[in-house]
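Lab notebook, page 48
Experiment: co-folding of the full assembly
Goal: obtain a model of how the components sit together before planning crosslinking
Operator: M.T.
Materials (sequences as entered):
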Amino acid sequence: MPDAAIDTQRMEKIVSLCKRRGFIFQGNEIYGGLNGVWDYGPLGVELKRNVKDYWWRVIVRERDDVVGLDGAILTHRAALKASGHEDTFSDPMVDCRTCKARLRADQLPEKNGVNQCPNCGGRDLTEARPFNLMFSTQLGASADPDSIAYLRPETAQSIFVQFKNVLDTARKKLPFGIAQIGKAFRNEINPRNYIFRSREFEQMELEYFCRPEQGLELLDYWLEERLKFYENIGIGRDKLHVLTVPDADRAFYSKGTYDIEYAFPFGMQELEGVAYRTDYDLKQHQTASGKPLDYFDEETKARFIPHVIEPSAGVDRTVLALLCEAYDEETVTDDKGKTEVRTVLRFHPRIAPIKAGIFPLLKNQPELVTKAREVQALLRPLMNVFYDETGAIGRRYRRQDEVGTPFGITIDFETLGERDPALRDTVTLRHRDSMEQERIAIADLPERLSRQIR
Amino acid sequence: MPDAAIDTQRMEKIVSLCKRRGFIFQGNEIYGGLNGVWDYGPLGVELKRNVKDYWWRVIVRERDDVVGLDGAILTHRAALKASGHEDTFSDPMVDCRTCKARLRADQLPEKNGVNQCPNCGGRDLTEARPFNLMFSTQLGASADPDSIAYLRPETAQSIFVQFKNVLDTARKKLPFGIAQIGKAFRNEINPRNYIFRSREFEQMELEYFCRPEQGLELLDYWLEERLKFYENIGIGRDKLHVLTVPDADRAFYSKGTYDIEYAFPFGMQELEGVAYRTDYDLKQHQTASGKPLDYFDEETKARFIPHVIEPSAGVDRTVLALLCEAYDEETVTDDKGKTEVRTVLRFHPRIAPIKAGIFPLLKNQPELVTKAREVQALLRPLMNVFYDETGAIGRRYRRQDEVGTPFGITIDFETLGERDPALRDTVTLRHRDSMEQERIAIADLPERLSRQIR
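Observation: model returned without errors.
Model output:
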């Protein structure tokens, strides 16, 4: 697969829309911003919730073989020593002696074969040295080294650390999984590409435990499941690239890893890794903690450490991919022959932050407003709706197009049955992508829309 | 209201059940545990999700006047300087010179009027000094003081800091609110009372902005709304105590604060604070950041800083209150006249982790199993169900009683229509609290159960 084309302008438009419409804001912006830290605004938080809720539904609630966990962010130093993070979770860093910038050594621009500081253009750089990416803090009131704790760099480790407790309480037999959604933190030297590589981010991780002989088959099974997931939220298979990570690039303990990649406007980048991690993690924690983390097989009476498949997805990356995939501009012509550019987010209805806009045609007609409020009350228990009575109807449609609302419902004089009694209690249902409109009975809305957003 | 009775034994039973059945585990337990840090197991995570989802539904999705936000945990030092946290968010701490313990000065036991170390009994304590409760960390690769960031001690501040961005994008008019659910962190000197006072916890906070003249009325409105919330998840008003915080105990900027308290087994303690914070927070951030955080009134053409009402609830505290409220033991007599103690969590169906247990009477009868799997497939898209075919039916009921599952559905020979064709495709529906059983058509289950869990 060829490298994805870089489209800086497109990326800038998406970032601008996200700020303008309240999807994503720079963290602590009024204080100059915190580099690599982002806040989700009113629409972003709904989009993110929809992604997480759908993942939880298909990975945990609709399966018999997976249970959930919600582990803490603050993590014991010993756990991240055992996992290898304290010693080896680092990026190579250099200092620029001219402007004092700290830079990722493996991402430096070159000029005539010599590394260059991207800030000042200087070439007087230090040797590269490892910089650990974990954030540390002091737990409790005393300041000795024993009180150091880390912000977890991934959610996975709390699953391994609690493996025995879950096994003892959930009564699951192999193969079974433990799933978690939660924040993780990495002190990136140079955060970049918007919410793609940030210092605080959210993960959706599944650790799926199995017998050693099932490992490779389940690796392929989970790759397939994960591709289906992206398809079901609007990122088709043709938009994803599956990279089989070569032997040399895999962690030494892994028997196979796929990267699911997406062509972001800034290039082809990893959305999710699906890794067969063997029994490495549980073994490490068993050795370091001295607590048994093995599985007792009731049939064969054998005890062994299960192997594990890990589909590990980034929530923020998925949100960004959805925004990039959905963003579209098209030239449309109105009834007066005037052309304009329509910006539309073509979100799958399942993940759209708002499912339906509800519009009384005129806000100064009490019957229209009352009816529109009734439609809102009817649909609200079933989905996130947005009531808007301000401005021309065309402008209201455009505002919802721009935030990806799949349905527009307009309450007009036909709804009141004034011209044609047969049309009483019907509304105009407008479809975001085609802009086509149809007449539908209010009573049919709940079923019709519910089916499409689920 | 008298002080709540302390019931240590009851608390121990709840803690034991939570560990045994997979609600809550000590964080990093296999490494000796991390003091004041807890992980939620398979059932705990579902219970917590249900509480958060219901809060989000009634506070954000079902209201026109509230939007959501999801701010970062990593927070700019300047923001928490402006809010007052860097200078004054502290507890008084003393050291015991004998055993070196660090202790909260205001919680020391006394003996003959002299403070005593609870660890060693020593009386050689230092003077009290303030200990700041915020966790700090270093952001980025350089180690200068500018790179210090804090883990937020409350979610509220990111709402104030993003007030202008939300106002500009969500087009709301006063009064309106910004709501957030998320983690916060406090480096408690002595964490205690299980998940009640922990170092990492989750908050559900609403900042409801209004005109100054609406403040006191809205304070009472929100107190009432919040009491309804607890009632709707199973904590009736008679179980809650509303404390009107006396003038002397309120923050100097607050014009009124209510504490909603619950009688935990370890005493009457705060579940939620509902505070009228005036314009203090926005003013502080406007002054410190130099960015305008005012509101433009289109009607009067005036600009002013809105006042704010803050209902601030703890997710973990609510979960603990639900567990305490639900926990019950009762002596029951079986058909053979044998008595036993039944442990039951009487959760409101709305927040119960599992809504229905699905049981084929016998696991070695394929028709029963097939039918039970059909019932599972029918209900699963609508609710969290648990299929169990192991052990005597009475034992399966008890296992679900203990984790608070409100409904038990048993597929038996009547379901197959073998004895009475009129009973074909009916099942036994057992109610957890009364243990009463009724016969119901499978086709009626979705509607019947959905109504009660919503």
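Interpretation: The first strand of chain B starts at residue 24 and ends at 26.
Next step: discuss with group before ordering constructs.
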